[in-house]
Design goal:
There is one protein chain. It contains 20 helices and 23 strands. With 525 residues, the protein is of the alpha/beta class. It has three domains: 193 residues, Rossmann fold (3-Layer(aba) Sandwich); 118 residues, AICAR transformylase, duplication domain (Cytidine Deaminase, domain 2); 121 residues, Cytidine Deaminase, domain 2 (3-Layer(aba) Sandwich), CATH 3.40.140. The strands form six sheets. A six-stranded mixed β-sheet has the order 10-15-14-13-11-12, with helices on both faces. Strand 19 and strand 20 form a beta hairpin. The longest helix has 29 residues. 37% of the residues are buried.
Length: 525
């Protein structure tokens, strides 16, 4: 049976938007209406003829309204198959219900109220509503379910034009209904997690890592033009969303002032830049290319930090992502406008800066506040997801173990601590050369450490004298040290832990290079 005529409808709503007009039209079409509680009172006030659920069940609402529709005559009328159960339904005087129009107690509104007591919030967990919706959605071959007032006009149109609802429409409505019940239960689940302060922002690992993604935008393409791609946004904890509806995190939450839509690669690069940028409190600039920092600098002046980050590798910075942790001024915008970059990210812009940047309409200009990262990060693999704590370790001078005869100067110590904050954001194998709180040479993503060393030295050019070098993992052989010794680099920071550490230390002593161990590795694959 493809077209389902609607002879009897059950209306039970918390949000009664549009229900009077809808019910009135159903009544004019000869549909018998059943209703409950507040919805019934509203229909009575509007003079719309209907029966109460109590008239059908023969029982009043009870237990402070907790039980009213949980009865065989209601659920039997919804769940009964017309091709199999009709005789049994007649025997037990169970009326067929063809249309179920239900929405739920407003749990999302109360759960975000900090002043609302636990017991009061729990009372807003709807039981009968979801039960009826699930029953109707399951039995969509015989019953239509409506959970959104937006669909009232569609229902009425089909009833007027076709005399009933098609199975295709009923199936679509059922899908929407199950989406609602899933979201509703997820909201309650997260509220319980939040109450014991264990949620997706927590540092406590969960047996079930619950994650809901909502399609944000369809991208022009993926990493390459022949690949389709979409961006999905993590739906935040509903309690937090209720408290602050404007609170979002991550690059997808950024306000974009100008330029084309962000590409797949743009998004990855911006995310990499922000991950590094949050490591710094002082004015900082991070330039990223292909998901790797290619220039990072801090200074008392943001424009100087930008110039030093840019000069670290001008070739790599071409077409890169530039991110700042302070407001972009007109003077800074003037400096940026002289070079070609794809995206600028900052927590704010002076009006004069936006006016100036607008002269380069293809430049993407993003504004977003810097926010602390979630303590967890995920990587999808075939058939699963890897979840790990984000590498947020911070080291101080007290954590460093001097292992060589030569001792680092105070300036070298400061540069090494800066270098360690940056090197953990560079893909392994990673080697970083730093001078005066700015990167001057980066060797990233190499399959051998000596290759990374040689690339970093070549990138640094003539800026290696008295610089410091950071390595994200131990040196397996002394060949790297011998190579470094030719450059004038005077201090090395590395985790240590190699079976050849003694050989590495001896090589540094031979060349007069100071070296410290952190005892902590910072690989980033």
């Amino acid at each position: 049976m493809n077209i389902l005529p609607i002879k009897r409808a059950l209306l039970s709503l918390s949000d009664k938007t549009g229900i009077i007009e809808f019910a009135n039209n159903l009544s004019k079409l000869g549909v018998e209406i059943l209703s409950t509680g507040g919805t019934s009172r509203l229909l009575s006030e509007a003079g719309i003829k209907h029966k109460t659920v109590e008239e059908i069940t023969g029982l009043p609402e009870m237990l402070d309204g907790r039980v009213k529709t949980l009865h065989p005559k209601i659920h039997g009328g919804i769940l009964g198959r017309r091709d199999k159960h009709i005789v049994e339904m007649i025997k037990h005087d169970i009326p067929s219900i063809d249309l179920v129009v239900v929405n739920f107690y407003p749990f999302s509104k109360v759960m975000g109220d900090k002043n609302m007591k636990w017991d009061v919030v729990i009372e807003q967990i709807d039981i009968g509503g979801p039960a009826m919706v699930r029953a109707a959605a399951k039995n969509f071959k015989w019953v239509a379910v409506v959970v959104d007032s937006y669909d009232y006009s569609t229902i009425l149109h089909h009833l007027h034009e076709e005399g009933g609802l098609t199975v295709e429409l009923r199936k679509k409505l059922a899908e929407k209904a199950f989406a609602l019940t899933a979201t509703y239960d997820d909201m309650i689940y997260r509220y319980f997690l939040n109450e014991r302060q264990v949620n997706v922002e927590s540092s406590e690992p969960l047996d079930y890592f619950d994650l809901r993604l909502k399609k944000f935008i369809e991208l022009r393409y993926g990493e390459n033009p022949h690949q389709k791609a979409n961006a999905y946004q993590i739906e935040m904890n509903p309690a937090l969303a209720q408290q602050n509806r404007t609170h979002r995190s991550g690059v997808l939450s950024a306000a974009q002032y100008q330029g084309k839509m962000l590409s797949y690669n743009n998004i990855l690069d911006v995310d990499a830049a922000l991950a590094c940028l949050v490591s710094f409190d002082e004015p900082a600039c991070v330039i990223v290319k292909h998901a790797n920092p290619c220039g990072v600098a801090v200074s008392s002046d943001l424009e100087l930090a930008f110039m030093r980050a840019y000069q670290a590798d001008q070739t790599a910075a071409f077409g890169g992502i530039v991110a700042f942790n302070q407001i972009c001024t007109k003077q800074l915008a003037e400096s940026i406008s002289r070079i070609f970059v794809e995206v600028i990210v900052a927590p704010g812009y002076a009006e004069e800066a936006l006016t100036l940047l607008a002269t380069k309409p293809n430049l993407r200009v993003l504004e977003m506040p810097l926010q602390k990262n979630s303590p967890w990060e995920m990587r999808f693999i075939t058939g699963g997801v890897l979840v790990q704590e984000r590498d947020t370790q911070v080291i101080s001078i007290d954590d460093l173990k001097i292992v060589t005869t030569a001792k680092p100067t105070q300036e070298a110590f400061n540069s090494m601590l800066f270098a360690w904050r940056v090197v953990k954001h560079i893909k392994s194998n990673a080697i970083l050369i730093v001078k005066d709180h700015a990167t001057v040479g980066i060797g990233a993503g190499q399959v051998s450490r000596i290759d990374a060393v040689e690339i970093a030295i070549r990138k640094a050019g003539n800026q290696t004298k008295d610089a410091v070098l950071a390595s994200d993992a131990f040196f397996p052989f002394r060949d790297s040290i011998d190579c470094i010794a030719k450059t004038g680099i005077r201090a090395i920071i590395q985790p240590g832990g190699s079976v050849r550490d003694n050989e590495i230390i001896a090589a540094c002593d031979q060349h007069g290079i100071a070296m410290v161990f952190t005892g902590k590795r910072c690989f980033r694959h």
